Amino acid sequence: MEEHPPGRGLVSAVFLAGCASYGAATLGRDRLDFTAAVANSWKQQTLLNIVKLRYADTPMFVDIGQMVAGYQLQTALTAGGTVFPSGAAANFFNFLLGGTYIDRPTVTYVPLTGSSFIRTLMTPIPPIRLMNLIESGYRADLLIPVAVQSVNGLSNGRGGGRGRLPDPEFVQVAAPPQLTIQAN
């Protein structure tokens, strides 16, 4: 049976760790985290632009052009020693082991312009998106008056040159307490 010096397995593991793939192991977790972050960002951007439009401010949409998650694992192993020839002092050896793990996502943002901007701006907000915002915790009595123009023929108020007050029935429809949805 051949004897191996102690620590040989440790040294092999350190060198092989640099060859391992970590991206595949984190794919499921990272994909869900990035998806949640993008969804929350879109909700906030949509709500901000709804308010901007309500108060005749210029909306601005920024899309995510690309997301790249980069992972890097670096290992280092250093060994050195000094042997005293006189024999008076014991042999002195040192051993250093180090590692670094880097998770570096890169996100590219692209402002929406041209036909993409017009399509985003002119497309009505689907009711399901408003309900998603309400479920996320935004107050219905604040969101509906700035996001909805009319409900069953009841008109919301308008600002600008053709300004007018909302129909009194619209105010009642837009702000009842039962519109507050609680997430389970």
What does this entry look like structurally?
The chain is of the alpha+beta class. It has helices spanning 8-17, 23-54, 114-122, 127-135, 140-147, 168-174; strands at residues 62-82, 92-111, 150-151, 154-155. The strands form two sheets. A two-stranded antiparallel sheet has the order 1-2. Strand 3 and strand 4 form a beta hairpin. The longest helix has 32 residues, at 23-54. It starts with 7 loop residues before the first helix and ends in a 10-residue tail after the last helix. The mean pLDDT is 76.
Note the main attributes of this structure.
single chain, 184 residues, alpha+beta, two-stranded antiparallel sheet, two-stranded antiparallel ribbon, rod-shaped
Radius of gyration, rounded?
30 Å
Provide the β-strand percentage band. 15-25%
Largest sheet: spatial strand order: 1-2
Pattern of helices and strands: HHEEHHHEEH
Major sheet characteristics: 2 strands, antiparallel
Give the terminus-to-terminus CA distance.
Answer: 64 Å
Low-confidence segments: none
State the shape: rod-shaped
Structural class: alpha+beta
Number of strands: 4
Estimate the helix proportion, in percent: 40-55%
In DSSP terms, counting alpha (H) and pi (I) runs of 4 or more, how many helices? 6
Q: What average pLDDT do the residues reach?
A: 76
Explain the layout of strands and helices.
Layout: H1 8-17, H2 23-54, E1 62-82, E2 92-111, H3 114-122, H4 127-135, H5 140-147, E3 150-151, E4 154-155, H6 168-174
Antiparallel strand pairs: 1-2, 3-4
